[in-house]
Amino acid sequence: MGTEVLLEIKDLSVEFTAHQRKIPAVRGIDLTILPGQFHALVGESGAGKTVTSLSILRLLPSNVTSLRGSIKFNDHDLLQLSEEVMRNLRGREISMIFQEPAKYLNPSLKAGVQVMEAIRYHMGYSEKAARERVCELFEKVGLSDPELAFDRYPHEFSVGMKQRVMIAMAISCNPSLLIADEPTTSLDVGVQRQIIHLLLDLQRSSKMAILYITHDLGIVRYAADVISIMYAGKIIESAPKDLLFTSPLHPYTRLLLASIPSREKRGTRLQGIPGTVPNPEDIPPGCAFHPRCPLAQQKCKENVPPLVRIEAGHRCACFFPGKEIRSNP
Amino acid sequence: MKPLLRVENLTKIYPGSGIIKRYPVKALDNISFTVEEGDTFGLVGESGSGKTTLARCILFLEPPTSGKVYYGNLCLNDIPWYHWRKLRSRMQIIFQDPNSALNPRLPIRRSLEEGLINLGYSRKQRNDTIRKILDQVGIPYNQVDWYPHEFSGGQKQRIIIARALSMNPKFIVLDEPVSNLDVSIQAGIINLLMDLKKEFNLTYIFISHDLDLIAYLSTKIGVLKGGQLVEVGKAEDVLAHPLHPYTRFLLENPLSFHSRIQPWETLAKETI
Ligand SMILES: Nc1ncnc2c1ncn2[C@@H]1O[C@H](COP(=O)(O)OP(=O)(O)OP(=O)(O)O)[C@@H](O)[C@H]1O
Ligand SMILES: Nc1ncnc2c1ncn2[C@@H]1O[C@H](COP(=O)(O)OP(=O)(O)OP(=O)(O)O)[C@@H](O)[C@H]1O
Ligand code: SF4
Ligand SMILES: [Mg+2]
Ligand SMILES: [Mg+2]
Question: What is the pLDDT of residues B168-180, one digit of tens each?
Fold first, then answer.
């Protein structure tokens, strides 16, 4: 027996059709999450992060025209489960929080009631028991006066507080996996770090695994155990935190890290990456990064580099992993 | 160095009105600072601290409630309206969202031309200017008849920078110009802005909530909190010897990419 695995995505592909055009948003990704792990999925806008997470929850929009691969969760393939079984799993075993909590809270229902309904639906608690559980959860997520918070409407909370309500709802049934899609983007530094600390605390105390989706490498460096980097619908590098930041191997990862401004770089030019992220409607053949890659060779234009293991836990999809990049003049 | 811009005791109060904003909001509270020629004045602060309000009041896109703004020797409070057109071209502003700054129904040529027509340029002069500035920001001239949606976010921001530049400004206020862009694209825009600054002797006020970015590019730093400028000084001084606790809080952000603080060092203190 190897190590226990919580979630194992194998060769997942998702294709949409819009305006008679095929949009391959996710193009064959592998991703493994161990129980209790903080796994960060990092990528720039349009890389396919949200589509990946919606695939896990089977909440993809209706214009998906092709969905292939498997998503094993505790030995069940989520893609094969009936909608009914899936509905029971969602919110109970796997739950999710999003960037804009306001969009997912019902404005005309008291915060406590919303969380209570979720608990009663999944756990069959009595109203009294559910109510107690809500107050316990509100306390846990740092809503200082749970009784008061229970009777408040969403608009009476700040954004940070709303996110806490969402988190309370998400963890109400002790899920083994929490998917967090940019939950702190657009929050202020102080609130951001409170939410991250709350998630870290829950991860530790409840052994809950977290799939944390973001483009913010600072958060990732602080909180994640393992990081997967996505580019144009593929995972191009994946490694435990320390390996990724001390010895990144993929040219994209390395250029991305070098592009982050800092006070130490005052007076020097920032790295940057020429060109733009490709549109999923016309992803370059071969390695999708080749038009922007300073190391690109003919081979890269013709062949797709597979994601291969370079050393323990460190995988990279490049024909020249770790090769020196001459900084541009 | 000559002071180019001087802000004195600037206060902006939005009157309370309607249901949502019941009480008056003091968006800016007695702000004073100077920007010298050639400075990049970095203004950092969290959401709602008054950054955009300050940008708008400096340029009199919105009248301050009290206080004065001097541009060189001119007191902007006293300028007659008919002088503003010329002055506006010298003082440009660039906003965060490149999508709302360009008219989606017009090819970018038309958006770029508008200001030049106001300045009385002939067709030939306009074409020459547009060709030159697009080249400067790295957009091929043969895309001049494309529509905004045909460009990426980073390219749109370049076009907006080109438009500001075509007015021959001395001074540009940049309100979170790269906050909507991916890191890999952001770096290119920042490099471009810094190159242009050198080439055209520009002076910037650069607004951001990202202290790492402000620390990278500013010569002077101002920290806004709740409408007050809680700290202002030379970048080196503010970074090395922050005086205000809030500045220290920002500088010690464990979520900054460059922080080496580990979760367990702060977790015990800060959870809930
Ligand atoms: N319903 C849909 N129909 C067509 N295309 C879609 C649909 N949903 C997503 N896409 C496309 O799939 C690609 C991946 O989208 P996704 O939302 O996963 O990106 P992301 O990595 O989450 O980006 P962001 O950081 O901007 O949230 C994008 O190019 C997007 O336009
Ligand atoms: N037109 C207005 N009427 C009333 N209040 C306003 C108006 N514009 C801004 N405010 C208030 O003034 C304060 C400062 O807002 P401002 O937009 O300047 O903040 P900011 O620092 O730019 O924030 P952000 O980072 O979110 O852009 C806020 O409390 C805001 O709600
Ligand atoms: S495979 Fe080639 S083009 Fe792709 S990242 Fe590696 S070197 Fe660059
Ligand atoms: Mg997304
Ligand atoms: Mg603003």
Answer: 999 999 999 998 8
Q: Which residues of chain A have pLDDT under 70?
A: 1-3, 327-329
CA distances, B253 to each of A84, A270, B258, B265 (Å): 44, 22, 9, 13
Complex ipTM: 0.87
Per the DSSP assignment, residues forming a β-bridge with A178 are: A95, A210
Q: Which residues contact B3 (CB under 8 A, 6 or more apart)?
A: B34, B35, B36, B37, B70
pLDDT tens digits, A63-82: 999 999 999 999 899 999 99
Residue A197 in contact with partner chain B when CB distance is under 8 A: yes
Our mutation pick for probing the ligand 2 site, out of B49, B59, B246, counting the most ligand atoms within 8 A of Cβ, is B49
**Cα A59 from Cα A61, distance rounded (Å):** 7
Separation of alpha carbons A179 and A90, rounded Å = 11
Beta partners for residue A227, in sequence order: A40, A239
Q: A282 in contact with B at a CB cutoff of 8 Å?
A: no
pTM of the model: 0.91
Alpha-carbon gap, residue A307 to A302, rounded angstroms? 16
Show which residues on chain B lie within 8 Å of chain A, measured between beta carbons. Answer: 46-47, 152-155, 182-188, 190-191, 194, 209-210, 212-213, 215-217, 235, 239, 249-250, 253-259, 261-263, 266-267, 270-272
Residue B57 identity: C
**Beta strand pairing status for A64-73 and A76-77?**
antiparallel
